[in-house]
Amino acid sequence: MVPFQPLTDTELTRRAQAGETGALGLLLARHQAPMRAVALSLLGHGPDADDAVQDAALTALRRIADVRDPSAVGAWLRAIVRNNARMRLRAARETPGLEGLDHLRPSDHGPSHPEQIVEQHAMRDWIWAGVEKLPQHLRLVLMLRHFSDITSYQDIAEACEVPVGTVRSRLSQARATMARALTSTAEEAHDDASAVTDESRHEAIATLQASERGPLPRDIAELWPRETELTGVLSRPGERLHPTPVLRRVLESGVRQHLRHVVASHDITIWEMDVTSPADKADPCPPTLAWLMFRDNRRVRRLRVVFPRPPR
Q1: I need a labelling partner for 220 at 20 to 30 A (CA). Which of 139, 164, 175, 186 fits?
Q2: CA distances in angstroms from 178 to 1, 60, 96, 151, 181, listed in the order given
């Protein structure tokens, strides 16, 4: 009887790059101990070490296609953990995005945008199936931190209306839950995650265009029922506002919004906008904003508009 020979790192990496989700799960499980050892050597025992390893696993999910030397995938994984840990040690200031991975930071102007990275291989739908399994409050912080440009803990805290400490705690829970969800669903069939994003992008463009022309057409107006509530800096405390008249007033002031990026799950949608103000406007709008929408059966129940700080 021929003894069983486990697959090599090279074989597992190539299978993972071809879209075999179980192969990537085996790789992460095989290298979890050395990855954790790197984190512990730099950060000591504690939640920061766990977060560094979990962040590295999420990065591997998105970037496995970039590994050029499959035989060195272990060193690649440990390097991601090491960079994460070193950035966590730089506590004097917070770096936006995935800690320590500036060269992997998503950009909307190149092929490394998160959406495009994930779409390069079949693991996109597996990843988003894991995201969808998270409770809404955990899913929101994960979507903001890892798939949008609202990445600083302070901005996420303000967007979610919770303390920074709660953001850190929720991110830690989300990463751990996500890891378990991915392991349990690796061999399942998954829905096409891009369809949700594509539909939301169409809705965003149609909403902006229709708002500039006048009354919203019926199919777009259905997204914004009478009970939709606007919250955030554009609303007043204690006052219940519908988004439509507020958006109209913004347009009448000459301010224009241009869709830059969409992040969408089945009941949370994020539209990130670039903003232009008239040159003679005394109090111009910030250059970027985001619409955070909480939805029920496609319709928006609550819209929160946030203005993230520009990256430092």
Answers
A1: 139
A2: 40, 13, 21, 18, 5
